[in-house]
Design brief:
alpha+beta, 7-stranded mixed sheet, 6 helices, 9 strands
Length: 214
């Protein structure tokens, strides 16, 4: 899989692939880019909340040329949909996600000494590189969206959820409740449907006490 990933070349026709050739390798050069792209599949927290596939994602990017590569800073604005974790009602809102990522030149390791520093090996494995002056924003966009999404989305902050007894949505009926019956008398009520006070059985009520005193 790793070899396949290394051999995969970027396609400039992909809406999430951007070209930096205009910047050259002049540190300090800057370019702003705005683009509307369709959301890729599974952009968000799967089965919880995310950007619907194909929904419009508005991107605003600033590309800056530095010694090591191109620093990409930007924001993404997109609609998100999900399900309230309390009442299971649909959740719809707008999302703004910010991100910043360095895309290194393929030969950046020979031009700087950063990779010779201790502890950089793990970071190098996750480093993103330019390919023929192109970079793919999708992995950066995915990380930014996931971090900006709520882990437990709710339709409203004070959503009361569902009734634990019958599953009714409590927001639709604030006075919703169930009569609580002492489980110790539940069997007796089944035997005597009209019984309102189980203590009246077998002369255990107040009247029985008075008769016993007499």
């Amino acid at each position: 899989m790793k070899e396949e990933a290394l051999n995969t070349r970027l396609d400039h026709r992909n809406p999430l692939v951007f070209d930096t050739h205009e910047l050259g390798r002049r540190p300090g050069a800057m370019k702003k880019v705005s683009r509307s792209v369709p959301a890729p599949k599974d952009l968000g927290l799967v089965d919880v909340i995310g950007v619907p596939e194909g929904a419009t994602v508005e991107l605003a990017l600033r590309l800056e040329s530095v010694m090591e590569g191109v620093l990409v800073t930007g924001t993404a604005h997109a609609p998100v949909t999900g399900e309230c974790v309390r009442c299971l009602e649909p959740v719809e809102r707008e999302l703004d996600a910010e991100f910043q990522e360095m895309f290194s030149y393929p030969d950046a390791d020979t031009r700087t000494a950063r990779r010779d520093e201790a502890g950089d090996d793990a970071e190098d494995e996750d480093a993103l590189e330019l390919e023929d002056d192109l970079f793919d924003l999708e992995p950066v966009l995915r990380d930014a969206v996931v971090l900006a999404l709520p882990l437990q989305p709710v339709c409203r902050d004070d959503c009361p959820g569902l009734c634990s007894e019958c599953g009714a949505r409590l927001a639709d009926d604030p006075d919703h409740h169930h009569e609580v019956t002492d489980i110790r008398w539940a069997a007796l009520k089944d035997l005597h449907p009209g019984l309102t006070d189980p203590t009246q059985l077998n002369g255990t009520g107040d009247g029985a006490d008075e008769n016993q005193e007499k």
